[in-house]
Specification:
The complex is a heterodimer of chains A (299) and B (326). Chain A contains 14 helices and no strands. Chain A has helices at residues 15-46, 50-54, 68-74, 77-108, 116-128, 133-142, 150-153, 160-171, 175-183, 188-196, 201-217, 220-225, 234-242, 258-296. In chain A, helix 1 (15-46) packs across helix 14, helix 4 (77-108) packs across helix 13 and helix 13 (234-242) crosses helix 14 (258-296). Chain A folds into two domains: 8-66, no CATH class; 77-250, MetI-like (MetI-like fold). Chain B has 326 residues and is mainly α. Chain B has 16 helices and two strands. Chain B has helices spanning 2-5, 30-61, 84-90, 93-113, 115-125, 130-141, 148-158, 164-173, 183-202, 204-211, 215-223, 228-253, 260-266, 272-275, 278-288, 292-320, and strands spanning 67-68, 79-80. Chain B has a two-stranded antiparallel ribbon with strand order 1-2. The two termini of chain B are 35 Å apart. The chains are: A mainly alpha (299), B mainly alpha (326). Chain B: Keywords: Cell membrane, Membrane, Transmembrane, Transmembrane helix, Transport. Chain B: This is Sugar ABC transporter permease.
Chain lengths: 299, 326
């Protein structure tokens, strides 16, 4: 082992350092295990039979493999209806959010736009102060939006956090590009659609993901404003199961399988709602990281 | 006005083609801005309308805290009643219980959930294998992408009578506890699940800051004889200090809003004594019992405290640390 001044990095690793590295490794492995455990446990519960569940014997692996409850939920038309509502709401809400966020971010990223600081102030102030639950509820009700898709997709259409990330992305674009396009006779619309947006695919993709995941996961707007079960997103389907509004009985359990259904109807529903996220997660999580990095570099 | 007219024409920035020159179009005037940038202004119209309707109108709607409100009537209420609803909640013991629970959960969240991501980020930063680091990160971010409904379902499952926590309690102590119903266990249940949920993703901004630490600072510290621990203390921590402070201010700002949706999903009347916070209390008062004005008064109180907290945290940190949000 060379011990020259330049190669200080390669200096002999001290005993304390090695102990620390071992401890660090073990700690992080424990974190990984503890993070994954609840998911594994729910999956195990969902495939186990009632005897083992009720005796508190299920932890990492299914005990007494049973798919009775899966069959029941997968045959439930309400479940599929609510699932398709979730997809519809996610698509519509994300589209609206993207149009509003992109256009606003593009305009306020223009440093010489008159009134820019007022527009930014209007948006940022809402991060720290909001009307609160009751005035919002009263407003949405009086707008006649109850029991419509609009109550779910409009109230949170712009996330100021996402707006600021996009704004700083647009601000960091080379000005020459847009200036050249303007000289070529493109209007500001033309510059946005033909020059800026094609160069912003990465940030647009990140924002779509941010909004889509938030909408896919959201439940509270729907819980507040929707009364018609045919309009519920799947998160409300699950919420009613957790809150005991839907029981094994009302979900269509029969005399012979009621016990089994009651034992794991919640874990089965959790697994069925979590699957889409788990499937796309490994592929999209790096975009989230990029998005947060972009946002954190600002100013 | 007269003075401005005497500015020689060369000093005026050339107007874009199509812009008509007249007195209203002086540089910096709205007339010129609109002529030149009207397309940009059309882009802000819809978003501004959104903020006006869905953000600022509800803020104004808070006046119902001082007015009598009739469901189906005007969103700004019917007639002034002064401080009636404010006195009502000030004399309401349930409100003060919720207030106390909010403070306690808020403080516990700051104590436990705020430092964990920093420690986690520092430990990740010590890993030499980038592959393993990526793997740990990928796993640790996962809970962040779950709906709060799913999280709540998993909490209730894991803490249920037959769940894992009771399996462990049974093995170790030979007893089981009804965690989800027992008021004494709500706080540990809430805080531990909150750490589980936020530790990984919360580290992401620190990790971003850590990648920007100048490598030569470590070299210099090593040459000065600093060991690994001293390097962390004197180089790494100061480097991420602005991030720590910014996040601390933001956390203090959301102090009053403690996990509203999650609590609403996992609490029940048996543990209200520790689980009921201001936001859940006003939810029940307002939307389950339809006392809109009363609940709006509580809500306004909550938002004003929230705003005050973030403004003062920001001012203090500007003074003491030179870091601030604005």
């Amino acid at each position: 082992m060379k011990e020259t001044g330049v190669l200080l990095k390669d200096m002999k690793v001290s005993r304390g350092m090695r102990v620390f590295r071992m401890f660090n490794l073990v700690f992080l492995l424990v974190v990984v295990f503890l993070t994954l455990y609840p998911f594994l446990n729910i999956i195990a519960q969902s495939f186990s039979s009632e005897g083992f569940i009720n005796a508190g014997q299920v932890n990492l692996f299914p005990m007494g493999f049973n798919t009775e409850t899966y069959k029941l939920i997968l045959a439930d038309s309400t479940f599929w209806n609510n699932y398709s509502n979730t997809i519809l709401y996610t698509v519509v809400a994300t589209a609206i959010s993207m149009v509003l966020t992109t256009s606003f971010a593009y305009a306020i990223a223009k440093k010489d736009l008159k009134g820019r600081s007022v527009f930014i102030g209007i948006a940022v102030f809402t991060m720290f102060f909001n009307g609160g639950l009751i005035p919002n509820y009263v407003l949405i009700s009086s707008l006649g939006m109850r029991d419509t898709l609009w109550a779910v997709v409009l109230p949170n259409a712009i996330s100021v956090f996402n707006l600021l990330i996009m704004k700083s992305f647009f601000e960091n674009m080379p000005r020459e590009l847009e200036e050249a396009a303007a000289i070529d006779g493109l209007t500001q619309y033309g510059v946005l659609f033909k020059v800026v947006l094609p160069l912003s695919k990465a940030i647009v993709a990140t924002m779509v993901l941010f909004y889509a995941v938030a909408n896919w996961n959201s439940w509270f707007q729907a819980f507040l404003y929707l009364d018609n079960p045919d309009l519920f997103p799947v998160t409300i389907y699950l919420r009613n199961m957790i809150a005991g509004v839907t029981t094994a009985d009302s979900a269509g359990g029969t005399a012979e399988n009621l016990g089994q259904i009651a034992a794991n109807i919640q874990s089965v529903t959790i697994v069925l709602t979590v699957i889409p996220i788990l499937c796309v997660y490994p592929f999209v999580q790096k975009y989230f990281f990029t998005g947060v990095m972009l946002g954190s570099v600002k100013e | 006005m007269a003075l401005r007219l005497e500015v020689p024409p060369e000093a005026v920035t050339p107007d874009p083609p199509g812009a008509t020159r007249n007195r209203r179009n002086k540089p910096g005037s709205w007339g010129l801005a609109l002529t030149r940038d009207w397309r940009l202004y059309t882009l802000v119209l819809l978003p501004l309308a959104y903020f006006a309707v869905f953000r600022y109108l509800p803020m104004a709607g808070n006046v119902i805290a001082f007015r009598q409100f009739q469901p189906g009537g005007s969103i700004f209420g019917e007639k002034w009643v002064g401080l009636k609803y404010v006195t009502l909640f000030i004399n309401d013991p349930s409100f003060w219980q919720a207030f106390q629970n909010t403070i306690i959960l808020g403080v516990l969240t700051l104590l436990f959930c705020f430092p964990m991501p920093i420690i986690f980020a520092l430990m990740l930063n010590e890993l030499r294998s980038q592959k393993f680091k990526k793997f740990v990160q990928t796993v640790a971010y996962l809970p962040h992408f779950m709906s709060v409904v799913i999280i709540a379902g998993m909490i209730l499952q894991n803490f249920s009578m037959t769940g894992t926590v009771n399996q462990i309690a049974n093995t170790l102590f030979g007893t089981t506890v009804n965690f989800t119903q027992d008021a004494g266990w709500f706080r540990p249940m809430y805080i531990s699940s909150e750490v589980w949920q936020t530790m990984g993703w919360g580290a992401i901004l620190y990790l971003a800051a850590l990648t920007r630490v100048d490598e030569s600072l470590y070299e210099a510290a090593r040459i000065d004889g600093a060991n690994r621990w001293q390097q962390t203390w004197h180089v790494t921590l100061p480097a991420i200090r602005p991030t720590i402070i910014t996040l601390l201010i933001l956390n203090i700002g959301t102090f009053m809003a403690v996990g509203f949706e999650k609590i609403l999903l996992i609490y029940n009347p048996l543990n209200y004594a520790t689980s009921d916070v201001i936001s859940t209390y006003l939810y029940r008062v307002g939307l389950e019992s339809s006392n809109f004005s009363y609940a709006a008064a509580i809500g306004m109180f909550e938002s004003v405290i929230g705003l005050t907290l973030i403004l003062s945290a920001n001012a203090i940190s500007k003074r003491l640390a030179g870091t601030s949000l604005w």
